[in-house]
Specification:
- By secondary structure, the chain is of the alpha/beta class.
- The chain has three domains: 93 residues, Udp-n-acetylmuramoylalanyl-d-glutamate--2,6- Diaminopimelate Ligase, Chain: A, domain 1 (3-Layer(aba) Sandwich), CATH 3.40.1390; 221 residues, Mur-like, catalytic domain (UDP-N-acetylmuramoyl-L-alanine:D-glutamate ligase, 3-Layer(aba) Sandwich), CATH 3.40.1190; 146 residues, Mur ligase, C-terminal domain (Protein-Tyrosine Phosphatase, Chain A, Alpha-Beta Complex), CATH 3.90.190.
- The strands form four sheets. It has a ten-stranded mixed beta sheet, sandwiched between helices.
- It is globular.
Length: 485
Amino acid sequence: MHKHLLKPATLNPQDIILTMTLNLKQLFEKHNVKSMSINSKTLKKNEVFFAFKSNFIEDALDKGAALVITDNIKNIDIEPNKVIYVENIQATLYEAIEIFYPSIPQTMIAVTGTNGKSSVVSYIAQLYSLLGGKSASIGTIGVEVFGSNKYNYTVPELTTLDYLSFRKTAHNLAENGTEYLAFEASSHGLDQKRLGQIKVNIACFTSFSQDHLDYHHTRENYLAAKLKLFTDHLSKKGIAILNSEVKIKDLLDEYKIKYLSVGTNGDIKITKINGSLKGQNISFIFNNKEYSFNTPIIGSFQASNLLIAALAVHHTGFDFDKVISALIKVKPVKGRMERIENANIFIDYAHTPDALEKALTELKNIKAPNSKLSVIFGCGGNRDTNKRSIMGSIASELADNVIITDDNPRNEDPKLIRQEIIRGIQKANYTEIADRKEAIKYGISNLKQDDILLIAGRGHESYQIIGDKKIAFSDAEITRECLKY
């Protein structure tokens, strides 16, 4: 028998402590609990462990957990002084979080969408900082802190953190001066309730197209997951800000949610975009007034992202004209149409059909006459397989040269992934090079004067996942190395 545990027969009704009668604060003080955990692998001494599955209880006690809280009492040996049973572990977790991590920034903005989430949360945080606020963003790229509220944060593994990690991060940000927090809300995170009980002042929806069907199975399920941001997490006094192409206004009307839209037919009406390899000029109308601003950020699809961010900041109390003046100074996001060393080479996170199409269309429209457009990309393993041939078709339609390589194959056969992409290629020359580094070298070596190369799919990522291993790999760094020779 395990050293911590007694026989099941020792479990008496009085040992079961119900949530409604449990004074967590007193309990934590009695057992000298300093913090909390939901992951037995990273558990530290003097932490309370919330065991959603009974098979982790033993491991938690081995690692010195001050307490274990669970609602699973079936077939478990217990030590009554160490294992606390509750009716609803989720509710108890939320209560404990409010004890340990009660602080959050005064303004919370969440962003969902198939593409554009990382860009918009960064633009929002940058704008607040440029306007004199202390701000931060959380998402795929990690935690970015702007202004004088400097603090060191670990980069999360997920676009949307689990609720405990999110609240701990938000608490530390708030305690270190952050007033404004913009964060990504992924469909997985929303479906898995990773936002817990968080309510936001503003909820943004950037775009909607095919992705994550390996998880959601249908587009309807995928959209339903994203809509939970608006129905479950937007405060009653909050407002939704949408790309006008996202057709959810009927649902928002049904729930009596206020909203504004950005786009060619939005409340902010984009009227003209003049783009080049150095940036773009964006013209629009808002409240019957004409505006125009320049930005170094490339991509006409970024026009709506920039203006969604501007509208969000404006609706938290900032003068709109001042926001637009600050928008000029907003910088591109790492791995999002990122130009490398002023060469005609761009790194982009585009890993969906819609994102790849938009990136290639943009570069095709701004390239010099008679120049060639090339693209290097692959598709991730253990993810939506339906999009692979679609992306192959899009690449062959829009690029002059297509180089198919490996992305993050994970536990799939990378050759089979490449073959599925190639099935969609109807026209254009294509080259298959399994090794991503060799593919990048090949793509760069074949560029001629004024040609453009897009390296798509991985953006900011600093590793490649092959099997169960993460191998250090950065598209941007490999590109810089190649440009030196």
